UniProtKB/TrEMBL annotation:
The keyword Nucleus does not apply. WD repeats lie at residues 56-97, 97-138, 140-181, 263-304. GO terms for cellular component: SMN complex. This is Serine-threonine kinase receptor-associated protein. Pfam families: WD40 (PF00400). Keywords: mRNA processing, mRNA splicing, Repeat, WD repeat. It comes from Ceutorhynchus assimilis (cabbage seed weevil). It comes from the Eukaryota. Belongs to the WD repeat STRAP family. One of its GO terms (molecular function) is RNA binding. One of its GO terms (biological process) is spliceosomal snRNP assembly. Gene3D superfamilies: YVTN repeat-like/Quinoprotein amine dehydrogenase.
Length: 325
């Protein structure tokens, strides 16, 4: 297997750096991916092939954060135009727009898709009730710098956030109070809750750290050869991927921290990386304006990757480049 060459699918269409991405769960129509880009136009794609489905039109500034709900019928985006928007992911129609007083960096849905949380450069976290969009949002304050990421946590009874004040914080949704905090020597760049909810993955400086999601005790931490912008843990927690400023995507053994492989495909720093819900691929978004889809198991027949039986391992068919209209 060692001489298998990774052939990523390249998803074109964005005109500026791609800074964030998210996947839906696996639905009856496979699964879907949404991307955030500084061109202000979030895009929806088929998750396993990268095929472009549509573009959400309406923001008047760079989009910094995106989310898809589990069923892939709602998308959300946060942008430099000081709004967080909710979209019908099937029709592309803008459903709701929530005004903020600064750049919205992060958006995420609750499990039942009735609530939206946002994190902004106002240093505030908000929760909007999507069934009562006119109602004032719940506000959580305590961070002392702009918020990078916020998401629902522990079966939606809590929130977890990280910010440019070098902290990760857990908030009780009922009391709106901070209940736990982890301080880092550098700002945390990415935050992910594992698919089973048990592990938090945080990238900061040139490290990837994993925390128990109940106690926030550090399970393990590994060093990557480059400043890390993003990291993602495989759904079965066997491996993780990381990416950053050296244009590479790295794959590591979660138990040992040993590097399994690394690939170069992007032409600019890699800002975001995430495993698909079935764990068969991971997607990366870059300063170069593209998303790339990488096979978790190189050479496996999956999606557009067709592995030819009996062919030389390096001759596995090259997938087509996926274009956006």
């Amino acid at each position: 297997m060692a001489n298998l060459r990774q052939t990523p699918l390249t998803c074109s269409g964005h005109t500026r750096p791609v800074v964030h991405l998210d996947f839906s769960d696996v639905t009856e129509n496979s699964y879907f991916m949404v991307s955030a880009c500084k061109d202000g136009k979030p895009m929806l794609r088929q998750g396993d092939t990268g095929d472009w489905i549509g573009t959400f039109e309406g923001h008047k500034g760079a989009v910094w954060g995106v989310a898809l709900n589990a069923q892939a019928n709602r998308a959300a985006s946060g942008a430099a135009d000081f709004t967080g928007k909710v979209w019908d992911a099937i029709s592309g129609e803008e459903l709701q727009s929530f005004q903020h007083n600064h750049i919205v960096k992060s958006v995420n849905f609750s499990k039942d898709s009735t609530l939206l949380t946002t994190g902004s450069n106002e240093k505030l976290i908000r929760i909007f009730d999507l069934n009562k969009p006119e109602a004032a949002p719940e506000v959580f304050s305590g961070h002392t710098a702009g918020i990078r990421h916020v998401m629902f946590f522990r079966n939606d009874s809590y929130l977890v956030s990280c910010a440019d004040d070098k902290t990760l914080r857990v908030w009780d949704k009922a009391t709106k109070q901070e209940v736990q905090k982890v301080t880092f020597p550098f700002n945390p760049n990415s935050l992910e809750v594992s698919r089973d909810g048990s592990v938090l993955t945080v990238a900061y400086s040139n490290k990837v750290a994993f925390f128990d999601s109940e106690t926030l005790s550090k399970i393990r931490e590994y060093t990557v050869p480059s400043p890390v912008n993003s990291a993602s843990l495989h759904p079965d927690k066997s491996i993780f991927v990381a990416s950053g400023d050296d244009l590479k995507v790295y794959k590591y053994d979660y138990q040992t921290g040993n590097e399994i492989e690394s690939f170069k495909g992007h032409f600019g720093p890699v800002h975001c990386i995430k495993f698909s819900p079935d764990g068969e691929l991971y997607a990366s978004g870059s300063e170069d304006g593209t998303l790339r889809l990488w096979q978790t198991t190189v050479g496996k027949t999956y999606g557009l990757w067709k592995c030819v039986e009996g062919a030389n391992l390096n001759d596995s068919l090259t997938p087509k480049e996926v274009q956006a209209n």
